[in-house]
């Protein structure tokens, strides 16, 4: 199987002048995913290998206005400014009709962030490794 998506969005500001002025924000993202069932006895139609690559930049070409007062800085609701992830996984279907799926995947996720003013010497690289292991079961009925 092969699957892909492309995401592009432009957020126009409500106010371009005055104390509430903001700038236009462009967002760009995509992902591509492939899956392959191994053609071997017994595991054919039961074991699927999957690979996914995904990218998101929620703030392409953002210019921070002078009156922004740090609105686009890092905080608990905005910890990163995008990521690139590569995910490899395996799916196992113990039932012939695929009503039950057991999954395991590992993601190599590299996130980017804006270093805050004065942070460059404090270990801030603008780059975070945030890898993730996911194991789950899905049932259909």
Short structural description:
The protein has 141 residues and is mainly β. It has strands spanning 2-11, 25-37, 47-60, 83-92, 100-112, 127-129, 132-139.
Question: What does this protein look like?
Answer:
This protein is mainly β and 141 residues long. Helices cover 0% and strands 50% of the residues. The chain has strands at residues 2-11, 25-37, 47-60, 83-92, 100-112, 127-129, 132-139. Strands 1, 2, 3, 4, 5, 6 and 7 form a 7-stranded antiparallel beta sheet that branches. Residues 73-77 have low confidence and may be disordered.
Mean pLDDT: 80
Span between termini: 23 Å
Number of strands: 7
Globally, the shape reads: elongated
**Which structural class should the secondary elements be placed in?**
mainly beta
Structural Rg: 21 Å
List segments where confidence is low: pLDDT < 50 over at least 5 consecutive residues.
73-77
Largest sheet: 7 strands, antiparallel
List the helices and strands and how they pair.
Blueprint: E1 2-11, E2 25-37, E3 47-60, E4 83-92, E5 100-112, E6 127-129, E7 132-139
Antiparallel strand pairs: 1-2, 2-3, 3-4, 4-5, 5-6, 5-7
Annotation keywords:
141 residues; seven-stranded antiparallel beta sheet; mainly beta; 7 strands; elongated
